Model the fold of this input.
Amino acid sequence: MGAALPKPVQPAAPTYNPEFDKPWRDFKWDQKSELKKHLEEFSLSNPDVKHIRILVAGPIGAGKSSFINSVNNVFQGLITSEAPANSSSSHGESFTTTAIPQVIVMTKVDEACPLVNKDLKKIYYSKKIKEKMQICHDKLGVLMCNIFPVKNYHEEIDTNDKVDVLILKALDQIVRLADDRLFNSSGTLLN
Done:
C-alpha cells in the first residue's frame, strides 16, 4: 500500500465585510446645534406663504408617527408621543409625476443593519443601508441625495445627539426643498 494522499486545501471562504472603508456620504455629527437653530429661525422665502405642508406617507408600521414624534423629541429635548400611531387612512395618491419635491425618510435603520444598531455613527459606512437606499431610489425614482436614513425614537427614555442630528438633517433638507419649491425655474416666486 502506498502513502495516503494529502487532502486538498480548501480556500477560506471570503468573509463579508458589512462596512465600507470610508463613509459613502459626508456627514457632520457635530452639527446638531447649528441645524436646530437654523430650523427654529427658519422663515419661508415667500412672505405670502405662512406655512408649508409636509405629507408623510408610507405603509402602516413604517415609522411615520415615530418620525413625527422623534422630530418633536429633538425640539423638546425629551421623549414625547404626540402623533398617534396607526392612525393612517387608506387614501393614497402618487406624486411621482407632479412637481412636488419628494424625499424618503428611511426609518428603522437600526433594525435593518446590525452594524448600525451597534453604532449609529456607522450609518454612512454601512453597505446594507446604502443598498436599501439604492432600492428606494430604483423603485421610487427619488434621488439618492433626497433619501435620509434615520433612527426614530421608539424604545429610548432619553434623547441622544446621534439620533437627533440625523433627524434634524432630514427635516432641514425637507424644509429647504419645500422652500425651494416656492420658486420656479426662472427664479420667480410661485403663487
User: Anything to note?
Assistant: The CA atoms of residues 78 and 158 lie 6 Å apart. The radius of gyration is 22 Å. The longest strand covers residues 104-106.
